[in-house]
Design brief:
Elements (H helix, E strand, L loop, with lengths): L22 H21 L2 H8 L4 H29 L3 H14 L2 H4 L3 H29 L5 H29 L4 H6 L2 H14 L18 H6 L2 H15 L5 H9 L9 H21 L4 H20 L4 H29 L5 H30 L1 H21 L9
Helix pairs in contact: 1-7, 1-9, 3-6, 3-16, 4-6, 4-9, 6-16, 7-13, 7-15, 11-15, 11-16, 12-15, 13-15, 14-15, 14-17, 16-17
Length: 409
């Protein structure tokens, strides 16, 4: 058994059903569910709030969304390295969720785009603090042969929250006659439920058999010691992210084709229902079948989504594009996390997730800024067609130029 397979006896574990996954995976999953309910309730109406209430431009939306996610990615590097040094993940996990919870009231209180930027910045710092330690904790407490299923289940529950948030947003927008500020206040309670849930039910695993890092700072020597196949996964993550900009543009596309303001969150509901339904089956499949095949299929689905969204002329077609987008996410996101966990030594797994998310976050910032600029200068169709073009190049590269990461590739 390789040193990076952190669960004792994991060589004897075969891929199994969701019922046999560790309790901690369920606690992390339901924590993600409640926090995503809170976050997506806000995010499903935030682009419209910025554009219609605060007067933001499309470029501003792209910059804010990209910068927010890049901030989270940068923070993940440090939190991942610190969690490796401490040998503990929970304290950073809870701190990150708590910080995000305390920012939720800032959104309905916002009186300018600067307020929104500050709130998104702080919220994403919280996401960055918790992200890499959480992903590393999943690897710590899950047998290696079940990691795909574990990441898939957590992503499924996370996506269920991403469905509930927009559903609540639609219902509340109807109830309060499109009063966006009032609706945003309902995001506060589920965020704090997450913090309580994690405090009570998440436990640190025994990591005494894993050597701790000599220091908390990430050095070039650390980076050089990471295996080549890990850096290939990092590259793949960046390419996938460059081909897929912020989901805020899905919401704006729905409004652009004439969907009534109160029903705009439906596009996120459709996307996340499909995401939630596909993430666990795709994760479980990743424990048994070719990663290359799943990633290629994910890119084909993204290309299809972009083409549909580019030529959408009514809300129903936007919903179809959003569904394809969600299926792409379900097939690829848990799989990429599993590949990171499988290619990084156990004692630097938090750092590995941090670097992966840093590179992906930088790619998201670039993709979102480009998308905002294209939308403003040439319109939404060009924006989505450009994404489809990049995804096509990535798919060709995946088929012809990517060497194996492991024997299943």
């Amino acid at each position: 058994m390789s040193a990076r397979m952190t669960h004792p006896g994991s060589h004897a574990v075969r891929p199994s059903s969701w019922r046999t996954l560790p309790t901690g995976i369920w606690a992390l999953g339901f924590g993600s569910l409640f926090m995503d309910t809170s976050s997506e309730l806000i995010h499903s109406i935030l682009p419209i709030f910025m554009v219609t209430t605060l007067g933001a431009s499309m470029v501003t939306v792209g910059v804010i969304e990209g910068a927010a996610e890049a901030t989270a990615a940068i923070t993940k590097v440090f939190s991942g390295a610190i969690s490796d040094y401490l040998g503990k993940r929970k304290i950073l996990l809870v701190l990150g969720y708590a910080l995000a919870a305390f920012t939720k009231p800032l959104f309905p209180l916002a009186t300018s785009v600067n307020w929104v930027f500050a709130a998104r910045f702080i919220d994403r710092v919280g996401k960055g603090i918790r992200g890499a330690p959480r992903d590393a904790l999943v690897a710590d407490i899950t047998p290696a042969a079940m990691r795909g299923a574990a990441y898939g289940l957590r992503q499924t529950l996370d996506s269920v929250g991403a469905v509930l948030g927009p559903v609540l947003a639609v219902a509340l927008m109807i109830q309060f006659v499109n009063d966006i500020r009032t609706v945003m206040w309902f995001a506060v309670v589920p965020a704090f439920i997450t913090v309580v849930l994690l405090l009570v039910y998440v436990r640190e695993p025994d990591r005494s058999h894993i050597p701790r890092r000599a220091g908390a700072q990430l050095t070039m020597a650390d980076a050089r010691r990471l295996p080549r196949r890990y850096w290939l996964v990092v590259l793949l993550g960046a390419v996938f992210t460059l081909a897929r900009f912020s989901e805020a543009f899905l919401v704006l596309r729905a409004q652009n084709v004439g969907l009534a303001l109160g029903y705009v969150p439906l596009v996120m509901i459709v996307m996340n229902v499909v995401y939630a339904g596909s993430a666990y089956p795709a994760g479980a499949a990743a424990d048994r079948v070719s990663a290359r095949t799943l990633l290629f299929l994910g890119l084909l689905l993204l290309i299809a989504a972009d083409v549909v969204l580019a030529w959408a002329g009514n809300p129903l077609i936007v919903f179809a594009g959003a569904a394809l987008w969600g299926l792409h996410m379900g097939l690829t996101q848990g799989l990429l996390a599993k590949l990171v966990a499988d290619t990084v030594p156990a004692h630097v797994i938090g750092t590995g997730f941090g670097i992966f998310n840093l590179v992906s976050g930088g790619a998201l910032l670039l993709a979102s800024v480009i998308a905002g600029a294209l939308w403003s200068s040439t319109g939404p169709s060009t924006t989505f067609l450009a994404s489809a073009g990049f995804a096509t190049v990535a798919a060709i590269g995946l088929l012809t130029g990517v060497p194996s990461v492991n024997r299943r590739w």
